[in-house]
Amino acid sequence: MSTLIVALNPSIDAEWRVPEVRWEEKNNVQSERLWAGGKGINVARWLKYLGGRPQLLVPLGGKTGDELAGYLRAEKIPARIIRLRESTRVNVIVTTKNGRQMRFNPLGPCVSAREWSTIFREVGAQLPKANMLVLSGSLPRGLPNNTYTVLIQLAYRYGVPTLLDCDGPPFRAAAKAQPFLVKPNEHELAQWWRKPLRSERELVRAANALSRQTRGWVLVSRGGKRSVLLNESSDFQCFATPPRVKLRNTVGAGDALLAAVARQIHFGAPPVKWLEYGIKIGSFATQRAAGQLV
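User: That's the sequence. What structure does it adopt?
Assistant: Structure tokens below.
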């Protein structure tokens, strides 16, 4: 069976390389690369790279949507495309010579009620063939904050566990629907907690509170610091420290981590292996140029 990945707000990712960013001056772009992006698509690309069977469901519109669909075909990623009236967005990553990055993400197209109805029906059609549902990324305009909540509840009807990676109000709403696993980073957990996390002890306290609400697994990714996976109802908690690597890029590292976790869950591996393998692949991703898997 496949892993169903719903990417509601995909993008073409464009990386512009510049010597440095000069404010209020002309910045000459020395090179440009384009690829299929957005968190959900990143998860699908990494899952395929790791030997998994992703089934991507993605709404696309306009010429940029056609271009993105071409990238997916070139990488042989199975995708069910829902056509939108409005154009798919283009995210811009500006990378300087010393490796610093700035990211510019448009809000994306406005999805109509009719288009959402088509998406919802298609998710329902795909779930009986899936062993897992991954909901990853922001919501496009036009969809309410409870959109992921509705999809998690739909997955429950088919006995399909959900992995959730988003932030802000959609995350706050969806966590109450009790997904199998949520993967906030440290900043996203602090948003949910509504307090700054000044120590690892406070972070663990917040993550346990989140686990009480979801009644499931919480994985908090923390960049170069040690990450934590816990489940309060199972009285489980483990940590993993990423290896020291030469950091080249951070775009998509969390998505690579989530894909690796999904792969281990599919294998029936113990939870400690979810975290260890996730951290390993996430660190591997930071050593690659943005958008490059190999």
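The domain at 2-286 is CATH 3.40.1190.20 (UDP-N-acetylmuramoyl-L-alanine:D-glutamate ligase).
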